[in-house]
Amino acid sequence: MAIMFVLSQYVELYFIRNDLALALKNLSVTMLSTVCVVKAGTFIIWQKYWKDLFNYVSKLEKHQLYKPDCLTKNIIRKYTEYSRFVTYFYWTLVTATVFSLILAPLASYLSSFQNKELNGSGASSYPEIMSSWVPFDKTQGWGYMILTLIHVLICFYGGGIVANYDSNAVVLMCFFAGQLEILKINCERLFGNGEETVSYREAIDRIRICHHHHILLMRYSKVFNSLLSPVMFLYIIICSLMICASAVQLTTEGTTSMQQIWIAEYLIALVAQLFLYCWHSHKVLHMSLQVDSGVYTSAWWSQDVRIRRSVLLLGGQLKKKVMFTAGPFTDLNIATFVAILKGSYSYYTLLSKRGE
């Protein structure tokens, strides 16, 4: 049903293609609807791999929390609390966006109704929540009521998809960053403070545990990236256009105050959504580049030559970086976020000059 609704939005876009204002309004929502459908579809199609990833996260954290290690428990507690904060913040933002999307046309209509009533020209036409095609008269009566109900349900459905998918993805990024920090601390504690007596077998076991921990993190970060990368590739392309379209709408003459408020809130939500991905992906990359320093700050000098060779091999393994991508062409980091904003501004400048 969601796919059919998105197709109806593109059909409506074809019919209103000659009206730039209506086309931009349609595009700003239709593209986001497309991303929602892709997120839901890929989550269902690749559900097996998502479950495997979630099971790994759960088992690893339970195993770590079972051990009497205060440092590890403290790191898990910190990134868990941070993940909850991000989740609550993002759900609040999505909820506000959904309600503003639903209520803004009504507020705009009431405002225009009052103005026209004062001028004696009568009420304006009923506004749509979203722009979509239907095979019946949607401008009045039962047709308008049915379409409004469909739009409200689709808004809540799409908001739920976005909030669930994005919060899951960002929390998993927090998990990888936190686990890399735990791995770094474990590497620093490989041989104690240098005065601790560590047998050859015990030292090898500690190195093996760190090595195995990093291998699993690398494996599942690649699984996560394979699930996220195609979706983010589509989203980054669309996000540039959506930000541009929203900016053009915001500065177009004739836009009412209520419409400007809605567009501004919608624009903030787009930028915040993109920033969350780029920022947390950048944090994972930054942490992965610091893990190998834990090996060299350990008391490796207190061990014999055989252990030092194993430490050197471990350091080589830990130099591998964890990077999340958006398709085969770009990485998810702060530089990409800035580049998208610059590109959106360039598109906005081009459309503004064309409008003049």
TrEMBL record:
Keywords: Membrane, Olfaction, Receptor, Sensory transduction, Transducer, Transmembrane, Transmembrane helix
Localization (cell): Cell membrane; Membrane
Keyword Membrane included in the entry's annotation: yes
GO molecular-function terms, A-Z: odorant binding; olfactory receptor activity
Transmembrane spans: 27-46, 88-110, 142-163, 227-248, 260-279
Entry's Gene Ontology cellular component terms: plasma membrane
Any one Gene Ontology BP term: signal transduction
Origin superkingdom: Eukaryota
Keyword Coiled coil part of the UniProt annotation: no
Bilayer topology annotation: Multi-pass membrane protein
Family label: Belongs to the insect chemoreceptor superfamily. Heteromeric odorant receptor channel (TC 1.A.69) family.
Protein's UniProt name: Odorant receptor
